[in-house]
Every structure is written in C-alpha cells, then in structure tokens.
Design brief:
Elements (H helix, E strand, L loop, with lengths): L3 H11 L5 H7 L7 H6 L1 H10 L10 H44 L7 H23 L17 H5 L5 H30 L8 H8 L2 H89 L2 H38 L1 H32 L1
Helix pairs in contact: 1-4, 5-6, 6-8
Length: 372
Amino acid sequence: AMSCSESTNIKSFAEGDILHPQVLALFPLCDLTEEDLSQNPQFCKLLVTLTKHVDSTGLTLSLKTELEKADQKLQSQRRNWLRSQGLFQTLKEMIQEHCVRRHYSTVPPDQNVVHTFYETMEKCLLVAQCVRMLDPSNSTQKEQPNILGLEPQQILQLMPLEKVRQKMKQSLPHELEKHLKNKCLSLLCYYHPEWENKSENLKCTKLSYLAKQVDKDKKNAESLKESCRENKILLQRQSQLYLSELIKCIKLLQTLILDHRLKIQTELDKKKLDYFEGKCELVLQKIKTEMVDIQLDTYTPDTISAHRKIREKLDSELKCCQEEKQGAEVKLASFEILGKEFQALAEEYGRLRQEIEMKNWALKEFTQYSNK
C-alpha cells in the first residue's frame, strides 16, 4: 500500500497543467500528449508512481542493475579484445609500412638488422594465426577436423630460432613505441594542422593534451546526439499535435461545406440567372439595333416617297371600289325588295342579253368573212 506522504507527493506532482511536461519527460518513449494527461489524471498519477520503479526506458531498477553489471563485464572483455586486436593491427601496419618502404627505396647495408626484425615478426604473426585457426573452439563440444590434416605442433616448427625471436622481442617495445608515437603525432597534426612544422618536443608536449581534447570532442558529439534525440522526440510530438489540429480543421471545413453548400449554390444560381438575364437583354437590344439598321438601309428617303405615292393611289382606288360596292349593295337591296317575280325578269333579261351578244358576235364574224 502507498503511504500518505507518498500519496500527497504524487498528488501535488501530478496536479496542474504546468507539471505535465515533467511527466512526459520521465517517459520520452511513450506516445502521450499533455491533453492525454489532463483528461486522465489517474493515469498521470500511475505514471508518476512507476517512476519509482522503472527508468525512462521502461526497465525495472533491479533489471537495470543487472544490465549495468552485464554491460560492465562486456565492456571489460571488449577492452581486452580491443587491446589485443589493436596490438595485432598495429603490428600488421608496421610490417606493411616496412614492405612499402623497402619496395620504393633501396635498403642500405646497416638496415639489414631492421629487415630481419620485421621478417621475424611477420613469421611469428603468421604462425600464431595458423595455430589459432587450427586450435578447436572452446565453445564446441565436438572436436573440429583439422585443416588439411595439420596439427598445431607442426606449424610451431616453422617458428624462427629462439635466439632470433628473443632478439626480436627485445627490439619490439621500442619499435612499437616509435610507431605509435608517429601515429599520435599524425593524429595531433590532423587536429592541429598548425603544429605540423613545430619541433618534436613541442609536439610531444602538446600530445599529452590530445586525449583530453579527444574526450571533450567525444562528449560534445554525445551531447549533440542527445540534443538531436530530444529534438526528434519534440518534433514527433509537435507533428502529432499539428496533425490532430489539421484533422480538426478538415472536419470543420467539411462541416462548413455540408452546411452552407446549398446556400452558396442558391446564391450562385441567382447570380448566374441575373447574368444570363442581362446577357439576354443585351442580345435583344442588339437585335433591335440591327433591325433598325436594316430598316434604315432598306427604306431610303426616295423609297419612302415612292411608297407614299403608291399608297395614296391605292387608297384612292380603294375608296372608289368601296363607293362602287356601296352603290351595288344599294341596288341589290332595292332588287331584293321586288321579290321572286323581279328575279325571273332579271334572269330573262340576262338570257336575252347573252343571246344578243352571241348574235352580235356571229354577225361580226359573218361580216368579216363576207368582206374577205
């Protein structure tokens, strides 16, 4: 059970929005926001309680202690391996540099001792490598078959003479120190190019501070990595907040579109209708203008005067015809008053007129033929 003081501390620690960033800093790997903590205060208290039992990576304290011990042991073994591996690589570099110098320059007679030294060291390294390859691994229960049927003792017989080996071992520390010193001076010149032309004593003096400078640069690099990691976490959180706000804006925009689409469409249709009405009115006015232009081009002053005279003549003829029509209508009315007897007389009169016209025509024709 949790004590009263611990509960009070957790409550005071988890209360208020200003403390939420501290809770988030204790769990940088969790995908949480301040809004999540403010909406779930009990969960925030749980996270604060977990900080007493786990670290920022989520490991328990006991497991973290075991992990630190295993890491220390691993680092110790790693340092031992790196020490032997570094020494081996340095010896190979010395042999390679000697081969290069010997290839590009003529070795004076007094350098035969140096050549013997490097040759002996190379043979010893090769024999040691072969023996190690022939030696079965300690991690396997079954013995591995030897390469080409060779035994380590057969390879050890290829070692140089004991006297030559002892002489090489006596000279090895000095040569190794000389080689490492040259490498350190080269590293110093890389860090400080202005020291390249200085004396060797000054370089050696400056070399004593090189380790501190390298360590300082390493710490700066680690600090920059940590800063980059924090900035990355901050960027992820800001990106999440940005995306959440963007989603809210998109939803709000969708709501505005759905709610006001018909209203906007109606206003747009009204404006389009007004536009088309105005355009139609403009087209009608243009048509009227074109009609007036056609009339003006068709009816010139001379044409209008001629049409006026024609109209006057037609009006006079129409007036005469109307008068004749009225006279005929009066006569017809007077004839209709006399009745059916007058109609028989009129028909007889019409028949006699036709006979007279026929006889006149026949007489005329007869007269024409007689004269011929």
